[in-house]
């Protein structure tokens, strides 16, 4: 016990020295033990807050997962989506009246500022909260890597242009993933996040219509009728489960739904039903694999989350540890 404690201390010291010596290369590698010395309670705090929020509302697990995705795709995983202010990312089209969970992050940050002030970045809180959101929904455990720094400003146009839309073709969604260092497989694996959570009618009602000629032929007719009932006459804010068969459970059912035309968004069903080309045959084969093999899905999902969680800040941006997740620190 005593021995291993001392050798770990030695290791931490030498890592610090190494960073000082090699100042050119910044010490920005993410690690799973980043706060083991500076704030070992971080796991308990995030876990308790996410658990409490999901007991109130199970959907919050999904919302926190999406928050992390929308953070990482714009200027890297830097907590920039959390920044308030008129030109914030949270007011970009894909986020406004859509992304949820900001209050949960605030509550976690408040606890952590009491426990170890100025230590844990908002971006790391979001990454960890997403991990527990997946886990408490019944999904896989994966080691969340930590050590991110918070960005100094938001990038609203980056959010408008960089985040995928459910209305665009799969090939163009793949391009957006490629732009941040992810690939076609990551698109299929991470779309499996839609095994939990909800989407608003405005985002899929173009697939519905009473006139059979223009209804989406890749949407199951009974499911279409039910969605039509839900969406008709509302303001577009009514929500349907992204996974019609197990809305709040993180499982492989999302892929199984796609085999029977029960994906909710055009971009979900397109992974299985798009016209054959190179990309479509790749995504279709992967959908088939994951609909069969939940263990493969779980382990690939963890790996792709770690990959997505490692999208870096733009070159030259050093970041900071924000004190309040909604505003940059005063200089
Ligand atoms: C592949 C491209 C993707 C598209 C086009 C897409 C699109 C969408 C849309 C339109 C919604 C509903 C938003 C609303 O109702 O306002 C949604 C919800 C959601 N998305 Fe995605 N998404 C994609 C990928 C991802 C990824 C990579 C993740 C996470 C790893 C993710 C996680 C979620 C979750 C969990 C929800 C439900 C959120 C909640 O209920 O609060 N999505 N997505
Ligand atoms: C905003 O995001 C876009 C697209 O991701 C990127 O090209 C641009 O450099 C970013 N702008 C700033 C100021 O970071
Ligand atoms: C949906 O709700 C938001 C926020 O409550 C509101 O601003 C918006 O107008 C609603 N959407 C429609 C189509 O009415």
From TrEMBL:
Its cofactor is heme b; Ca(2+). GO terms for molecular function: heme binding; lactoperoxidase activity; metal ion binding; peroxidase activity. Ca(2+) 1 binds at residues 71, 74, 76, 78, 80, 89. GO terms for biological process: hydrogen peroxide catabolic process; response to oxidative stress. One of its GO terms (cellular component) is plant-type cell wall. It catalyses: 2 a phenolic donor + H2O2 = 2 a phenolic radical donor + 2 H2O. SUPFAM superfamilies: Heme-dependent peroxidases. CDD domains: secretory_peroxidase. It comes from Triticum aestivum. This is Peroxidase. Residues 1-27 form the signal peptide. Its EC number is 1.11.1.7. Heme b binds at residue 194. Ca(2+) 2 binds at residues 195, 243, 251.
């Amino acid at each position: 016990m005593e021995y291993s404690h001392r050798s770990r201390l030695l290791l931490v010291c030498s890592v610090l020295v190494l960073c000082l010596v090699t100042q050119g290369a910044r010490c920005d590698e993410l690690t799973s033990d980043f706060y083991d010395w500076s704030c070992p309670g971080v796991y308990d705090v995030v876990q308790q807050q996410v658990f409490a929020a999901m007991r109130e509302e199970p959907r919050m697990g999904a919302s926190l997962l999406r928050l992390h995705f929308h953070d990482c795709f714009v200027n890297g995983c830097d907590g920039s989506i959390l920044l308030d202010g008129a030109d914030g990312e949270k007011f970009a089209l894909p986020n406004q009246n859509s992304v949820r969970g900001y209050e949960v992050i605030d509550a976690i940050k408040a606890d952590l500022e009491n426990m170890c002030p100025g230590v844990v970045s908002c971006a790391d809180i979001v990454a960890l909260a997403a991990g527990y959101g997946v886990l408490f929904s019944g999904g896989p455990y994966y080691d969340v890597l930590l050590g991110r720094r918070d960005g100094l400003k938001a990038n609203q146009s980056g959010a408008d242009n960089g985040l995928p839309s459910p209305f665009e073709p799969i090939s163009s969604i793949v391009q957006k993933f490629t732009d941040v260092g992810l690939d076609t497989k990551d698109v299929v694996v991470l779309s499996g996040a839609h095994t939990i959570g909800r989407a608003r009618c405005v985002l899929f009602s173009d697939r519905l219509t009473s006139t059979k000629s223009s209804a989406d032929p890749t949407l199951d007719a009974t499911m279409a009728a039910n969605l039509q009932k839900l969406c008709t006459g509302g303001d577009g804010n009514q929500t349907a489960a992204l996974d019609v068969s197990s809305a709040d459970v993180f499982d492989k059912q999302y892929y199984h739904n796609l085999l029977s035309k029960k994906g909710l968004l055009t971009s979900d069903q397109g992974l299985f039903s798009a016209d054959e080309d190179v990309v479509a045959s790749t995504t279709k084969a992967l959908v088939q694999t994951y609909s069969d093999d939940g263990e493969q899905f779980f382990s690939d999902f963890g790996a792709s989350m770690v990959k997505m969680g490692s999208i870096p800040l733009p070159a030259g941006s050093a970041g900071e540890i924000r004190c309040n997740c909604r505003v940059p620190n005063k200089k």
